[in-house]
Amino acid sequence: MNKEISTPLASWATQTSVSPWMRTSGIVLAGSALLAACSHVALPLWFTPVPLTLQPFAVLLLGLLLAPRVAAATLGAYLVEGALGLPVFTPGFAFAGGLAHLTGLTGGYLLSYPLAAMLTSFAWRRTGRGFSTALVSAAMGNSVILICGALWLAAFTHVFLGTAAGLAIFPFLPGDALKVVAAASLVTGFNRLRRRNA
Questions:
Q1: What is the mean pLDDT of residues 122-140?
Q2: Phi, psi of 45 (to 5 degrees)
Q3: Where are the alpha helices (DSSP H) in 40-172?
Q4: Is residue 105 within 8 Å of residue 157, measured between CB atoms?
Q5: Given this model, what pLDDT does residue 29 score?
Q6: H or E segment to which residue 42 belongs
Q7: Is 1.25.40.10 the CATH classification of the domain at 2-197?
Q8: CA angle 45–50–51, rounded 5-degree value
């Protein structure tokens, strides 16, 4: 009797625990795929070893769309995929892959992505979720990316922080401002549309 009663309960518990896990896994994979696609939209710059890419936009967008832990997991999965040799990173000058990117000149940017996405998500979810707060949250996450990228570049090349900032931060501020605005606009517009349909 106990066995007959416990079997349906066990089945129900298994289904309810697996379903959210599968949904989260799908979100993580889809998010890492989006980031991989954006990483291949890149423009090399002659005055800096850091290319101009859409990666920060994808990081900020995922941070605004996903819960903090899911955002961090998505970006962590992206880094693992790249470390394993999958073609998800921006092609370098030698089109190297895997750990060469994580340990190269732009490794600081890549390694900052989970923290930047989680911080963006955390900040926005503790505000009114309006456009202005989305801008501030995305700007905070983008600042983490730029600062980590500059610090890594300074340590990697043994240059002064001012020089590293001139190579890894200042040239990207105008473009990153557009990415921040674009990510905030898309997410707040999506939220308004969802509330209207609901």
A1: 92
A2: -115, 135
A3: 55-65, 68-83, 99-102, 107-124, 131-157, 161-168
A4: yes
A5: 94
A6: strand 42-43
A7: no
A8: 55
Domain assignments of the chain as residue spans, ordered by start: 2-197
Length of the chain: 198
**Torsion (CA) 178, 34, 39, 183 in degrees, nearest 10:** 10
Question: Exposed, middle or buried by CB within 10 Å (0-12, 13-18, 19+), for 24?
Answer: middle
CA distance 173 to 96: 27
46-73 burial code (b ≥16 CB/10 A, e <16): eebbbbbbbbbbbbbbbbbbbebebbbb
Inter-CA distances, 50 with 31, 54, 90, 140, 171, Å: 23, 12, 10, 20, 10
Least Cα distance to 59 among 152, 182, 194, 190 occurs for 182
* Residue that the structure tokens 């009797």 belong to: 1
Please measure the distance between the N-terminal and C-terminal CA atoms of the chain and give it in whole angstroms: 45
% pLDDT > 90, the chain: 68
What pLDDT is stored for residue 11 in this prediction? 43
- Residues with Cβ within 8 Å of residue 72, at least 6 apart in sequence: 114, 115, 117, 118
Confidence band of 3 (pLDDT split at 50, 70, 90)? very low
Question: 43 pairs with which residues across the strands?
Answer: 52
Residue that has been written with the tokens 């456009």 in this structure: 131
